[in-house]
Design goal:
The protein is an all-alpha fold. The protein folds into 2 domains: 35 residues; 56 residues, no CATH class. 84% of the residues lie in helices and 0% in strands. The chain has 3 helices and no strands. Helix 2 packs antiparallel against helix 3. The longest helix has 30 residues. The relative contact order is 0.08.
Length: 91
C-alpha cells in the first residue's frame, strides 16, 4: 500500500479502536446490571408477524399486516413484565 494511504487511514483506525474499547467497557456495565434488550426482541417478534402476514397473502403496507404484526407483539410485550414481577415476588 502507498504510504499516503496508510497515513490517511491511521486516524480512522485509531478512532475505531477507541470506540470498540468504550463500547466494550460500557457494555460490560450494562450486562452486569442485568439490562435486557426487550425492544430488540419485540421488534423481531413484530417482524415475524409481518412475515406470517406476507406468507398468508396480505399486502405488507395494508392494515391487515399491521394488525397481524401487532397481534404477535402484544402478548409477547407482557411476558417481560410478568417475569419481572415473578422474580421480585420470589425474593
Amino acid at each position: 500500500m502507498d504510504a499516503d494511504a496508510l497515513q490517511f487511514l491511521l486516524t480512522p483506525f485509531l478512532a475505531c479502536l477507541i470506540l470498540v474499547g468504550i463500547h466494550a467497557y460500557l457494555g460490560l456495565h450494562v450486562l452486569a446490571r442485568g439490562v435486557i434488550f426487550v425492544d430488540i426482541a419485540l421488534a423481531q417478534i413484530a417482524a415475524l408477524g409481518t412475515t406470517v402476514a406476507f406468507l398468508a397473502g396480505h399486502d405488507l403496507e395494508g392494515p391487515s399486516a399491521y394488525f397481524i404484526s401487532l397481534g404477535f407483539r402484544k402478548p409477547s410485550s407482557a411476558s417481560p413484565t410478568r417475569s419481572r414481577r415473578q422474580r421480585r415476588s420470589c425474593l
